Amino acid sequence: MNKSTSTFLDCARWLAAFFVVFGHAAHMLIPDRYFLTELGHCAVVVFFVVSGYLVGGTTLAKWRERGVDLVGYSAARFSRIYIVLVPALALGYLLDTLGLRYFDAYAHLGSLNIGSLDNVEPRLGVKQLVGNFLMLQGTATEVLGSNGPLWSLANEWWYYCLFLFIAGGAVSRGVARYVLWACAVPLLVLLDKNLLLWGVLWLAGLGAYFIRWRMPTLVGAAAFIVSLVVWQLMEHQYALLRDAIVAVGFCALLLSKIEVPFAKLHEPMAAFSYSLYLIHFPLMLMICALFGWRIGASSALYIPILVVAVYVLSYGFSLLTEKHTNVLRSWLLRTYARIWKSNVADSRTRVVTPSGAAGE
């Protein structure tokens, strides 16, 4: 991947995270809806496409050249997701528990119909906590507490797993191919059907990775903007089609000869976008409660204050979690290598002697 594409993807990641946070802040504070405040869901579509491109595309290219690396892939995906998810679940559970106990603002949130926000108390139990840890939100349980954005993380995780089994099987040979494909069958049967259908957005990013043709920048930008307008104009009953149009529009932009300015800005901003996405909603709700801002009926002047506060807190959170992703991945790989070498050494040195042999 060339530098300009990498910079563009970093730019897309942090801007998508910004529009999710901005949209949720606006929904939480004001009753009105505008074009910019409605782009949060489109930003999630962009996340899926970027993930398919970065994870699916780059991994498949490596596997086709060097063979399937199940251990390396699994360690990379697990460390990337869970080093942030575990503390994010704990933080969200703590904030929502305190909110329910001390602030009236947490009661009957579902009746306000604000984005991902729903009644907190029924979704704040052991079932939801364990289910979200196992990425079963949307399939076997609801999201944890107020953290509605967690729905998309389950999609992401199972797309990683299905990619491992299906694409890994396609690249493998012999018995390994059929074993990997067999592992995909239970997921295809048991996972939520909407989760599986929305996988086409992830696949769009994977496919875009292998397209070498580049279109003019203005054409790609126009296609993406048009897709956003179409998304807003289409009826909600065509949800998958709307999202697919945005995915195609973003792929057009991704495949254009785009050069984003301020190149040094995008990598550090993207570096904590995952942490920001995972904890921003419970943080927003608690901040509103602490300052006494009325949910769904406050001033638009509070929106930038809320966004800045969430960014600052999320950045601090990322320094304790997301920043150490590579450390966790390296530890997992070293641990696996140590266990594997130990087992191999034991199998080679183990001597089985007959009962009654000398020394017994």
Can you give a write-up of this model?
This protein is an all-alpha fold and 360 residues long. It has one domain (3-214, 253-333). Helix content is 70%, strand content 0%. It has helices at residues 3-29, 40-66, 70-102, 126-133, 150-171, 175-190, 193-197, 199-209, 217-233, 239-254, 263-270, 273-291, 302-320, 325-349. Helix 3 packs parallel to helix 12 (273-291), helix 8 (199-209) packs parallel to helix 10 and helix 9 (217-233) runs antiparallel to helix 10 (239-254). The model is unreliable at 351-360 (pLDDT under 50).
Question: In brief, what are we looking at here?
Answer:
The protein has 360 residues and is mostly helical.
